C-alpha cells in the first residue's frame, strides 16, 4: 500500500517537474513558414520590411492543442524600437501540428541602427514559453553611441623572472550596438613582458550595457628592468557590421623581490650614566629596485622608547647607514636589552621590515671633582711644596756656613805656619 501511495505521489508531481525542465512550446528550427527565406537552422533571422520587423516562428507543443497567443516584449532597460502597434496576435494549430506565428510589429519612424534583443512570449492554456530573439537594424538613423569599448580597472602582477597576469575590464556603455570579434594585442617595446601563448588574445563579445573582466597571462624575463613599462594595448572589434580598432598606452610596473640585508651593528659594550653613546646600523640593498623611506628605530627600555633615524633612499647594490645617539639616565644601571627595527619599501609601496636584538651595559657615572675642591687641593700642594723648598734652602745655607767656617779655619792655620 505504501509503495502504491509513493507511485501516486510521483505521478502527481511528474507533470510539474517536466514543465520546469521542458518548455511547453518549442521552435521547429527546420520548418519554413511562407515569407521565410530559409529555416532557422539555415540562418533565418528577423528582418525589417516596410517599416516593420518581420518575425516568423514555427512552434510545436506536446501538451497544447488550441488557440495560443504570441506577444513581442522588450526587456527592461533595453531600447524599444517599436511604435506599440501589432505587438500581439492569436494563432491556431495547423493540421501538421505547427503553429505558424508571423508577427510584424511596427518600428518607430525614427528607429536607430543597432543590435536589438527582444522576447516573443508564446502563451497557451496552461503555460507559456519565452523565445529570446536578436535582430539588427541597419537602414535607420545613426546612433549617438560611442562605438568604442571603455577600458578600465587595469592592474597587473609582474615580477622579474616569473609568470604573472594583466587584468582589465571592458564595458559597452552604449544602448544599441553590440561589440563582437573582440581581440587585444599586448606588446612591450622592451620585450621584457611577453603575453602567453601569443601577443593576441580573443575576448568575449559585449552586448549593449554589458561589461566583462579579462585576465591575460604573461611571462616576465629574468633580465627585465625593474621600472614602469609602457605597454601598448591594441583592441580590434566589429560593431554594426564594421571593423574598428583603438589603441591605449598603459604604464605597468615590473617588480622584484625586496632583498634588504643588515650589516654589522656598531654599538659599544658599555656606557656610563649621563654619557652620550651611539649606535650605527648599515643597511644593504641587494635587490634590483631602489629602496625608499628606509629608517632605523632604536628601542632601549628606560633610555629611549623609539628614537628613529631616517636613511632615505638606498639605490640598488648600495649601502647606507643610520646613526642614533642616546644618553642613559642616572637611574638606569646594569644590562639593558633592546632592539633595532629597520624598515623600508620599494618604489611600488611594498614594505619590508627586520628586527635585531641588542644589549648594552650601563655603568655608574664617573667621579666628578668640583672646581673648589681642585683649587683647595692645588693650594694644599702648593703649601707643602713651599715648605719643602724652605727646608731645602735652610739646609743649603747651613751647609754654606759650615763650609765657610772650615775654609776660614784652614786659612788661619796656613797663616800661622808661615809665620
Q: Can you walk through the features of this model?
A:
The chain is α+β, with helices and mostly antiparallel strands. The chain is built from two helices and 25 strands. The strands form six sheets. It has a five-stranded mixed β-sheet with strand order 19-25-24-21-22, with no helix packed on it. Strands 1, 2, 3 and 6 form a four-stranded antiparallel β-sheet that branches. A hairpin with a 5-residue loop joins strand 9 and strand 10 (163-171). The protein is rod-shaped. It starts with a helix and ends with a helix. Residues 1-20 have low confidence and may be disordered.
Observed structural traits:
419 residues; alpha+beta; 5-stranded mixed β-sheet; 16% helix; rod-shaped
Amino acid at each position: 500500500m505504501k509503495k502504491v501511495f509513493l507511485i501516486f505521489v510521483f505521478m502527481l508531481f511528474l507533470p510539474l517537474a517536466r514543465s520546469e525542465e521542458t518548455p511547453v512550446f518549442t521552435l521547429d528550427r527546420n520548418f519554413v513558414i511562407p515569407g521565410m527565406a530559409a529555416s532557422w537552422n539555415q540562418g533565418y533571422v528577423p528582418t525589417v520590411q516596410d517599416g516593420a520587423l518581420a518575425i516568423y516562428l514555427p512552434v510545436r507543443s506536446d501538451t497544447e492543442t488550441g488557440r495560443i497567443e504570441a506577444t513581442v516584449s522588450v526587456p527592461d532597460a533595453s531600447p524599444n524600437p517599436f511604435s506599440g502597434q501589432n505587438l500581439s496576435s492569436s494563432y491556431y494549430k495547423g493540421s501538421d501540428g505547427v503553429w505558424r506565428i508571423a508577427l510584424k510589429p511596427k518600428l518607430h519612424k525614427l528607429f536607430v541602427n543597432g543590435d536589438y534583443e527582444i522576447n516573443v512570449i508564446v502563451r497557451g492554456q496552461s503555460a507559456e514559453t519565452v523565445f529570446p530573439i536578436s535582430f539588427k537594424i541597419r537602414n535607420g538613423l545613426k546612433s549617438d553611441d560611442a562605438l568604442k569599448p571603455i577600458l578600465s580597472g587595469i592592474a597587473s602582477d609582474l615580477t622579474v623572472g616569473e609568470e604573472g597576469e594583466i587584468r582589465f575590464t571592458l564595458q559597452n556603455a552604449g544602448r544599441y550596438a553590440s561589440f563582437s570579434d573582440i581581440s587585444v594585442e599586448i606588446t612591450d617595446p622592451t620585450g621584457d613582458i611577453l603575453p602567453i601563448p601569443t601577443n593576441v588574445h580573443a575576448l568575449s563579445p559585449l552586448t549593449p550595457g554589458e561589461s566583462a573582466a579579462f585576465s591575460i597571462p604573461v611571462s616576465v624575463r629574468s633580465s627585465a628592468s625593474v621600472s614602469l613599462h609602457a605597454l601598448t594595448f591594441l583592441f580590434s572589434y566589429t560593431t554594426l557590421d564594421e571593423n574598428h580598432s583603438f589603441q591605449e598606452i598603459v604604464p605597468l610596473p615590473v617588480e622584484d623581490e625586496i632583498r634588504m640585508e643588515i650589516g654589522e651593528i656598531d654599538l659599544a659594550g658599555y656606557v656610563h650614566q649621563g654619557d652620550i653613546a651611539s649606535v650605527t646600523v648599515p643597511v644593504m640593498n641587494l635587490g634590483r629596485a631602489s629602496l625608499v623611506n628606509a629608517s632605523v628605530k632604536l628601542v632601549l627600555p628606560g633610555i629611549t622608547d623609539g628614537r628613529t633615524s631616517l636613511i632615505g633612499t638606498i639605490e640598488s647594490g648600495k649601502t647606507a647607514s643610520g646613526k642614533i645617539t642616546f644618553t642613559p639616565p642616572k637611574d638606569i644601571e646594569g644590562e639593558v636589552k633592546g632592539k633595532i627595527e629597520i624598515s623600508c619599501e620599494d618604489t611600488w609601496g611594498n614594505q619590508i621590515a627586520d628586527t635585531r636584538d641588542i644589549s648594552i651595559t650601563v655603568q655608574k657615572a664617573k667621579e666628578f671633582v668640583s672646581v673648589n675642591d681642585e683649587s683647595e687641593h692645588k693650594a694644599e700642594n702648593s703649601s707643602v711644596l713651599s715648605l719643602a723648598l724652605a727646608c731645602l734652602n735652610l739646609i743649603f745655607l747651613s751647609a754654606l756656613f759650615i763650609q765657610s767656617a772650615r775654609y776660614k779655619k784652614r786659612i788661619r792655620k796656613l797663616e800661622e805656619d808661615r809665620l
